[in-house]
Request: fold
Amino acid sequence: MTLNVALIGCGFIGRFHSTALRAIAGRGALDIKYAAVVDADYDRASTFAEPTGAVPLADPHEAIDSPDIDVVYICVPTGGHKELVLRAAERGKHIFCEKPLATNLADVEEMVEAVEKAGVKAGVGLVLRHSPILTVLKDLISDPTLGRMMTIVFRDDQFFPIEGHYASEWRRDSTIAGAGTLLEHSIHDIDILRWFAGDVRDLRGKTRNFAGYEGIEDLAIAQLAFENGAEATLTSIWHAVVGRSSTRHLEVFMEKGVFSIDHDYLGPIHYQVQAQNAQMLTEAEVRERYLKGVGLEGEIGEGLLAYSLEDYFFLKSVIEDNDPFPDFRVALEAHRVIDGIYRSAAGDGELVDL
Reply:
């Protein structure tokens, strides 16, 4: 049976999902129909819908309430997520919601409870879980001969996404965004740190506000201690260097191995293990290893790499009646850590036990 999908929100991130949905349907990768596009700006919805054959709408409730829609993609600004997720769950729709799920932990907990009570599939836009380079790196550091994980050093920086190609002016407004670089951007990083190192035991955090938007930090620094004994530091920055690309630098130190990357999707992995000389897994090798590992070898896999793999895997999980990866529960755990960092920062860096 064909899966009918509606996209709600035609902003920066909605454009990526729209392109991905068109690619998945157009390539015949999955049996889906891009059925509806929703935006408060009806003309913008019409522009998105025109090349797809989808129906443009201005009211998200019209799509969510439609018996013809099976899946809704919620890509509006963060402050609007909760109401749409709760309504979609109540109507029995499967849900893909962009990150962060909500502006605060209590709302996230309510959303998780709602989707689980409704029994719908609920995926979240923690896209780095489907990053080829991070997936391969996770596999490499899982080699038991490398010993225990010691520490991870993570730096994430980009220009403040209210300008440039992001043009997300709502991110300067804490009533819509909830907070700044830590919640709106580095929830990805916290999720990856948990993916690599497991549950966080305790943490310290500090935030600063250089740009001056109330409640919107543009610098966050966190020290995390994990249950497995590993430690990590995260530095998250929204700066004003608009000519600089969004960059993630990650170093993982095992007892008998060191790994580093400067990309968050595709690129080389530099590493040195045991008594061997420094080595490099090339971007082509990363690509090949990833596609083989997820069973997407061949033309379809290469084609999907250019778009959003997270959309393919989420919709595949709905079609095959499997649990999505990552799901709302995964996001909830990242939100718990984020909340702890903000509480620590409010206490001038005091230790918070999770």
Remarks:
- The chain has two domains: 3-127, 128-315+334-353.
